[in-house]
Amino acid sequence: MEKYLEKFQDLIVTNAPKAIVAIIIYIVGSYIINLILRAAKKVMSKRDVDITLQKFLANLLNWSLKILLIITVIAKLGVETTSFAAILASAGLAIGLALQGSLGNFAGGVLIMLFKPFKVGDLIEAQGEIGVVKEIEIFTTKLTGLSNKEIIIPNGSLSNGNIVNYSSEGTRRVDLTFGVSYDADIKQTKEILMNVITSHPKVLKDPAPTVNVSELADSSVNFAVRPWSKTEDYWAVYFDITENTKIALDKAGIEIPYPHSVEIHKES
Q1: Which residue in 66, 151, 250, 265 has the fewest CB atoms around it within 10 Å?
Q2: Are 76 and 25 in contact (CB under 8 A)?
């Protein structure tokens, strides 16, 4: 037992200097990486590099420098880098299969940066999720959902799927449908609905809003109300028009039909 204890102590004494130097290299290296990243971000900001590209390149640089640092630390601990490389090469197939998804996500991130279907700050719908693009990283893209939840989507599936970008055009059409009673005058109803949308300060004049009869339903005449707004004003216009329409129709005495229940009493 004493023999093994002595060997263990000798091992600690022999390797302690290497371990201490490796730790120092890691700490100093991490500090230098942070300095390099800050400097790179400042340079990109001064040169007005697109914010989406800035974050992606900073992320890529961060990963590359950290991998280089880890290899340096491993070498300082006494592990031959040539042997380390040989081990990686011999296990290349297994590593390739294990990282297949990650490599696909990396390739997806590169494709997103090249073709730019969206940028940071855009409202998009993809992979069944809707949110504002917060950050495009090497392997994933982060969205902020409408209820302020964070959504993380792998770049591989994101680049290969359908993407709806609600922000790219700068404007959106607000699609609303209102039903009124068959007793209501169509011309009067259209005028009221048009007044409601044209009087809203966030409804755009160009493209011009429209009001049309869209359907003669079972219990109502349905009107398709189509105002346009800036993308950032979409929900304000949607909710305001809905509320203001109800108030205006009530004021004009125009009924909005709703389901009625009828009780039938059978006399015995």
Answers
A1: 265
A2: yes
The residue among 103, 136, 106 whose CA lies nearest residue 118 is 136
Cα 175 from Cα 228, distance rounded (Å): 9
Indicate if the pLDDT at residue 8 is higher than 60. no
The whole-model pTM stands at: 0.61
Residue partners of 220: CB distance under 8 A and separation at least 6: 179, 180, 181, 182, 256, 257
Both tokens of 243, joined, read 């509320």
Residue 109 structure tokens: 């991130």
Q: What are phi and psi of 221, to 5 degrees?
A: -100, 120
What does the alpha-carbon distance between residue 36 and residue 26 come to, in Å, rounded to a whole number?
Answer: 15
| Helix (H) and strand (E) counts in the chain | 8, 10
Q: What are the DSSP E strand ranges found in 201-264?
A: 210-216, 221-226, 228-230
pLDDT at position 243 over 80: yes
pLDDT at residue 93 in the model: 47
Q: Per-residue DSSP letters for 87-132?
A: HHHHTHHHHHHHTHHHHHHHHHHHHHHHH-S--TT-EEEETTEEEE
Contact status, residue 132 vs residue 166, Cβ threshold 8 Å = no
pLDDT reported for residue 90: 55
Q: Mean pLDDT over residues 22-33, rounded?
A: 85
Q: Which residues pair with 70 in a beta bridge?
A: none
The average pLDDT across 136-150 equals: 89
CA–CA gap between residue 177 and residue 180 (Å, rounded): 10
Alpha carbon of residue 214 to chain centroid: 34
CB 252 within 8 A of CB 180: no
